Amino acid sequence: MRRSSTARSRTASGESLTSPAVLTADVIAFMRASLPSPPGRVLEVGAGDGELAVALREAGYDVVAIDPASEADGVRPIALHELEDEPFDAAVAVVSLHHVEPLEASLQRLAELVRPGGTLVVDEIDVERLDERAARWWLERSGHDHEPAELVSGMRDHLHSLAALREALGRWFALGEPVRGAYMYRWNLPPGLREPEEQLIAAGALPAIGARLVGVRTS
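^ that's the sequence the OP posted. Answer follows.
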């Protein structure tokens, strides 16, 4: 049975590759390792179903999770640029900053909400590194019938690039270099594909489109 035109357009725009988030153990481990030790106030941007917020609360953090599209318990349905709250010790964003609008106002508000010296932890996709090889690998395993070029152009048209995010964030945060790695195994694919994706990246057959950043709020 062929998918509807609505489903096809969602895949072409990249929505199926970035939402809903699959919160894997390595993502949680990255967040925990990058955050200061609990307790502390943590803002999660783009919290989705609140799974990461739950994990961080169980670890002892005081978490405020926001997502304007979420109806989950423990997640406030508010956009980043509209949030009013006390300063946070840290902020985390898992594959969400590429969606925020308006970008400049949202990231400025993020900087205002994180105290000087506070930590920013970001897990993202670098759409500029997504190419037809990667798109074909994902499409073949996801069951979608789009052309790789269509997916690549849709993603680049609809998502903020990692370069744009780094440039904007760099006005308020001292950012480390992105750590590149596998990404596609996390998104609507069967389990067990992380190692094959990493092997293909190591062999130069696929680009590493995942990127993880840690920054510190400057004064």
